[in-house]
Amino acid sequence: MAVRKWNEFRIPYEQAVEELKVKFKSIRREYRRKNENSPIEFVTGRVKELSSMLEKANKFNIPIERIEYELEDIAGIRIMCQFVDDIYRVVDLIRKRKDMQIMYEKDYITDVKASGYRSYHIIVKYPVNMADGVKEILAEFQIRTLAMNFWATVEHSLNYKYKHKIPEEIKDKLKGAADAAFKLDTEMLEIKDEIMDAQKLFEVKSSLVSDIMNNIFALISSGRNVEAESFQNQLNDVLSEGEVFELNALLKSTEKSLKIYK
């Protein structure tokens, strides 16, 4: 197939990846705006390069004219989660969607690969609205924790370096690293509530400090430098202790000062 044809072939897949990234990043943003724990931490996506498509098609004896029907991961979306149970929350989100059809699922977390690879894969059929009509394409979701993703990225690099013939000694170390990464995920899940509380507290403090600084800048802009400096010194003192109620009280003081001026 000519280069031009390959470039045209990629168009619906590129569009699908961009659309799906936007949709799932929006879900993350929605959770955050509601002050709820988002099961989605990061979303990335890619379209397979031509060389990778041909290599995989050759490996599985897929004729070029059948690639779009039988090669399921030309369009790939990767969703990273903080915790293992978040993975299954994301799976449920995908199952409930009306804008795609699930073809099948592979749970490599329950059914771990011999290499140590863990991830949850979902193959979907996704309609893309093109200039000349709707084009249905296959896309693959890979849902995993940050630790699983780090391990998988390293393994992928080593497979590329050794042309899928990684020496046994390195394979053994990789398997040990995979087990250690999953142990870390399991231990983090056990203290999830404490981690989430700490993260929420950090977000609250950051928001309060941001609002206070905006008010201080507003005072400076209106020429009230003495008050601004006083509030800045109070903020510095409060930050050393880091108590939320003190930050909240300081915020109200700056708001009151601005209101009096108006």
UniProtKB/TrEMBL annotation:
Entry's Gene3D superfamilies? Beta Polymerase, domain 2, Nucleotidyltransferase
- At the top level, the lineage of the source is Bacteria
Ranges for domain RelA/SpoT = 45-166
Q: Does the keyword Iron apply?
A: no
Instruction: Name its pathway.
Output: Purine metabolism; ppGpp biosynthesis; ppGpp from GTP: step 1/2
Instruction: Identify the keywords attached in UniProt to this record, alphabetized.
Output: ATP-binding, Kinase, Nucleotide-binding, Transferase
Return one GO MF term: ATP binding
Q: Quaternary form? A: Homotetramer.
Q: What SUPFAM superfamilies does the database record attribute to this sequence?
A: Nucleotidyltransferase
> For this UniProt entry, which segments traverse the membrane?
none
Please report the name of this protein according to its UniProt entry: GTP pyrophosphokinase
User: Could you provide one GO biological process annotation from this protein's UniProt record?
Assistant: guanosine tetraphosphate metabolic process
Enumerate the InterPro entries for this protein: GTP_Pyrophosphokinase (IPR052366), NT_sf (IPR043519), RelA_SpoT (IPR007685)
Protein species of origin: Clostridium novyi A str. 4570
Provide the organism lineage as a comma list: Bacteria, Bacillati, Bacillota, Clostridia, Eubacteriales
Tell me which family the UniProt entry assigns to this protein: Belongs to the RelA/SpoT family.
